[in-house]
Each structure stands twice: as structure tokens, then as C-alpha cells.
Amino acid sequence: MRRRNTEALSDVIQQFLKQSKLDKPLYEKRIIDAWSKVLGKSIMSYTGELSIKNKKLYVTITSSVLRHDLFISREQILHSLNKHVGRNVINEIVFK
Questions:
Q1: More confident residue, 14 or 81
Q2: Is residue 5 part of a domain?
Q3: Do 90 and 82 form a contact (C-beta atoms < 8 A)?
Q4: How many CB atoms sit inside 10 A of residue 4's CB?
Q5: Higher pLDDT residue, 19 or 86?
Q6: Helix (H/G/I), strand (E/B), else coil: 58
Q7: What is the CATH number of the domain that holds 72?
Q8: Is 70 exceeded by the pLDDT of residue 17?
Q9: I want to staple 56 with a disulfide (CB 3.0 to 4.6 A). Which of 17, 42, 62, 92 is the partner?
Q10: DSSP H stretches of helix in 1-96
Q11: Cβ–Cβ contacts within 10 Å for residue 53, how many?
């Protein structure tokens, strides 16, 4: 018995997720989960709702001072989140 067209399981799963259009929500969920890992528990205590729409991450921050500091660092945060996930999932962060 000969094996033909062998593929790595990870490639098959990636292909399945892409074909079934489940890869986008999966990576968006990973970005939201990465927020606490990248920014830490202290920032999480001031973080409200997180959502993604049209490649924009919307983040509710309860402290106006922290919101301003995060706004200044938004490009670095954006890069860190995408790097953590291993894919360019978001291209903008909006703090509210």
C-alpha cells in the first residue's frame, strides 16, 4: 500500500478552517485572549469590553489616564498582539 499526497495534520486543519471560513473568528478570538497576556493583569483590571470589527480592535478602558497612555502606545500594542497570534489579524486599535 502506497501513501500518496501526505500532508501535515496542521496543514489539513488550517485548510479546513479556511475553507469553512472559521479561521477569521478563531484568530479574532486569539487576539482578544492575547490582550491580557500582552498587556498584563494591571491593564486588564481597567479593561472592559473587547471586540473586533473590520480588522479594528475596540477596547473599552475605564481610566481616562490609562486610555491616553495606551493610545500613545497603540502601534506597539498592535504589533505585539499580531505577533503573539502569528498573523496580521487587526490593523487598528480604537480605545473608548
A1: 81
A2: no
A3: yes
A4: 4
A5: 86
A6: strand
A7: 3.30.300
A8: no
A9: 92
A10: 9-19, 23-39, 41-44, 64-72, 74-85
A11: 9
What is the distance of C-alpha 77 from the center of its chain? Answer: 11
CA–CA gap between residue 38 and residue 31 (Å, rounded) = 10
Residue 13 lies inside a defined structural domain of this protein: no
The mean of the pLDDT values for the chain is: 89
> Of 96, 83, 84, 18, nearest to 56 (Cα)?
96
How many other C-beta atoms lie within 10 A of the C-beta of residue 54?
7
> What's the gap between Cα 32 and its chain centre?
5
Domain count, the chain: 1
Q: Residue 56: beta bridge partners?
A: 53, 92
Ranges 20-29, 60-69, 72-81: which has the least confidence: 20-29
In angstroms, rounded to a whole number, what is the distance separating the alpha carbons of residues 53 and 64? 23
Segments forming the whole domain that contains residue 88: 22-95
